[in-house]
Each structure stands twice: as C-alpha cells, then as structure tokens.
Amino acid sequence: MSQRLQDKVAIITGASRGVGAANAQLLAKHGAKVVLTDISAEGEKVAADINQTCGLDTAIFVKQDVSDEQGWTDLIAQVEQKYGRLDILVNNAAILKHASITDEDYSGWQKIMKINTDSVFLGTHAALPLLEKGNGGSIINMSSSSAIMGMPHFVAYSASKAAVRGLTQSVAVYCSQKQNKVRCNTIHPDAIATPMSMEVGMDLAQKGKNVADRTRVMNFICTPDAVANTVLFLASDESSHINGAAIPVDNAATITPPYLPNS
Ligand SMILES: NC(=O)c1ccc[n+]([C@@H]2O[C@H](COP(=O)([O-])OP(=O)(O)OC[C@H]3O[C@@H](n4cnc5c(N)ncnc54)[C@H](O)[C@@H]3O)[C@@H](O)[C@H]2O)c1
C-alpha cells in the first residue's frame, strides 16, 4: 500500500461508524497516525481494528462531544503533546433529523446547528494554530448535497451544511491570504449508505411515511469508501493547490435538471 500520508497526523470526528470510520481506516492505510473522536465509545473498537491492521500506535480513540468548546481545547493539547503536530482535521461528525420548516421547533434547530455547524467553527478555531505550525495542513469539512439543493424535509440539517460551506470559504481565503499553507475544503455527498441515512429511513417507515416521497429517487447510493477516497485526496499533498473547493460526491445529482429525458 502506498504511503500518501506518511508522517501526517489526522483528527477525524464522528469516527465511530459510517463515513468517519471509513475515513479513519483509509487515512491510516495510507500512513497517517489517526485520532478518532466520537461521542459514542464504539470508536474504541474501530481504533483497535486499525491498530491490528496497520500496526500498533497507528490509531487512538478520544471520546469527544464536538459541540463542546473545552473538549476541543483539550483534544488539541493532547494531540500536540503526543505527536507534536497536526496535519489533517476532518470535521465529519453530524446529526440528521427529518423535519420541515413547520415541523421543526427552535430547540431542534439549535441542536442541529450546534452539533453540525458550531462544531466546525470550534474545531477549526482550536486546530488552526497547530495546523499552521506544519508544512501544509488540510481541513476537510463534511457538508452535503443538501447545502446546494433545497431539502424541504431536512430544513435545519440543510441550513447547517450550507453554513459549513460559508465558513469553509472564509477560512480558505483567510489561510490563502495569511500564506500559512493550510487549506480548507468541503465535500458534498448525496445519500451515502451509512447508519445515519438508514436510521432516518427506518424512522420514516415506522411513522408510515413514504420514504421516496420525502427524499428523492436516486439511481445509486454512495458507499462510505467513495467519500473516504475524496477525503484521502484532500488530505494528501496531491491536492496542495486545492483550497476553498466544494467537491460534490453525488453522481451529478446536484446538477441534473428535473425530468431530463435519458437520451
Ligand atoms: N449519510 C448520508 O447520506 C450523508 C449524506 C451527505 C453528507 N453526510 C455527512 O457525512 C458525515 C458522516 O455521516 P454518516 O452518514 O457517516 O453519519 P453517522 O450517523 O453514521 O455517523 C456520524 C457519527 O457522528 C457521531 N456524532 C454525532 N453527534 C456527535 C457529537 N455531538 N459529538 C461527536 N460525535 C458525534 C455519531 O456518534 C456517529 O458515530 C456527516 O457530516 C453527514 O452530515 C451524510
């Protein structure tokens, strides 16, 4: 296996399952030391499996609520003490809730903004000074196709992901102007086969709602590995001139006009 991330240290949030776990596994296979964090301790097992496959001391797990400011300060201090560097931050943790503008209430809105958007501010704010000390840092923020398209049944989620995009652009320009060699990009997947999308689908089915009516008919569903490979590219020096980009991983879903004939 090639070592595209040799000597790099990465933090991946929400790494107990789904895309976050796939990210951690792939970055580790390519030579990175990976710090998995999650509010769920299931990430202990993901880290142990990585260590079994990639060698002892490749991965550690730290329990973290990404919406807690002090937790970020502590995490970055721990990483600096253990590794003396940080090269890659993947702000991946998020929650999804099925609710329209009339269904959602203010506390539900605030909860989603806190976990999905405030967390990206907190993580980027806390990590940037350490990333800047290196020779080319990469911040990868997991957004969504819902930041680009209207999603009537996921109102707070789509707003939270659009805010992540706005934050990313400003950080990218800040870093470019400061010439600190740190890059900041977003990835915008459409539906991915993970527990997040499955749980929402099951919840809708239990409520007797037609899932297809509330989402869209899709001609493919993305695998976590397809997203992780995009993360790997953005994490590596191969993407050294890509800063501020919004990369869709959606098989053209966000650019397909409705009712376009097939031929
Ligand atoms: N699944 C999809 O269809 C889809 C589509 C587009 C974008 N995304 C985005 O991809 C990313 C990964 O999604 P996934 O599908 O793997 O989700 P997932 O629910 O399978 O995994 C998310 C992880 O985040 C963790 N998490 C939740 N709240 C947390 C908190 N407060 N602090 C720390 N960790 C927390 C969960 O415990 C979980 O392990 C998310 O940012 C999501 O919005 C997912």
From TrEMBL:
Pfam families: adh_short_C2. Keywords: Oxidoreductase. GO terms for molecular function: oxidoreductase activity. It comes from the Bacteria. Belongs to the short-chain dehydrogenases/reductases (SDR) family. This is Short-chain dehydrogenase. It comes from Cognaticolwellia beringensis.
